[in-house]
Amino acid sequence: xxxxxxxxxxxxxxxxxxxxxxxxxxxxxxxxxxxxxxxxxxxxxxxxxxxxxxxxxxxxxxxxxxxxxxxxxxxxxxxxxxxxxxxxxxxxxxxxxxxxxxxxxxxxxxxxxxxxxxxxxxxxxxxxxxxxxxxxxxxxxxxxxxxxxxxxxxxxxxxxxxxxxxxxxxxxxxxxxxxxxxxxxxxxxxxxxxxxxxxxxxxxxxxxxxxxxxxxxxxxxxxxxxxxxxxxxxxxxxxxxxxxxxxxxxxxxxxxxxxxxxxxxxxxxxxxxxxxxxxxxxxxxxxxxxxxxxxxxxxxxxxxxxxxxxxxxxxxxxxxxxxxxxxxxxxxxxxxxxxxxxxxxxxxxxxxxxxxxxx
Length: 359
Ligand SMILES: Cc1ncc(COP(=O)(O)O)c(C=O)c1O
Hints:
Distance between the termini: 52 Å
Shape: globular
Largest sheet: 7 strands, mixed
Mean pLDDT: 96
Number of strands: 12
Strand content: 15-25%
Bound molecules: pyridoxal-5'-phosphate
Oligomer: single chain
């Protein structure tokens, strides 16, 4: 048969949707299953978001503002950066993809730690670029000297995920300063801070305030996690104006939807509530970490809204055992299991399941 699609895509894993809670509850004959697999925050939409979305729907027969002007200005104001440095997109994952498309041609290299966010290999490959994966340290964190050493004259982008998904580990300011000084000025460093709002360690820098002015740095943030808008798909990046302008050229037109814009504008007014929710998640993260350590698993300290159980070959069996007890977690067989922090009750259900699964 004549081949219509790119042969190199055959090597990419197809998306396998996670188990649905309704489906699992039906199978187990229980009222409700619990999903701790996608790093969402469990408290529902922020106050005012549903109303803002409903009001915006009256204009849903029109295209959204392609310039995303009101939201861009609000983000620029909130994060104290010039508006021409801000680009919004259909989730920060789309913006990461756009950054690679705006920088890399087939054969160019994108360097990142592994294991890290599962989307990185996919968005690199779809741009036709080549992934260079640098193994994490024994403590499950980025090996920044090795990442710097992996840069060649084909490297266009280096991604640093801080805190790292799925291990929750983070890199500190001194380490990152040294690393950024080592990276050639014609390589773009993407600092992916999807989980920034959950960081409590003062050694871990806020990239927007610490590195935002470096010419070869782009910072990714999302409204999916702490801001509770995962289902509406909205994230943003801050980069130098030339990089931001190049990204705007490759963004799918109108991809920040009308409802996403309205929801984000409303969410950004809820900063106190976001802080309150993050504090709840952080307290639970620390409780769950301690409890799982007591079960004999060497959980690295997490600065995100999830914890990592480095169970290597036992990962899939552990996740299956949790599922049998109504709790869906995310296994990466051979490496470990990532468990999102939920409500205290959900976390208790996970800890009971984990106790049995690890017995
Ligand atoms: C490290 C990291 N970056 C980016 C994203 C993407 O977030 P979104 O596309 O929902 O903004 C995620 C989501 O899980 C993530 O873990």
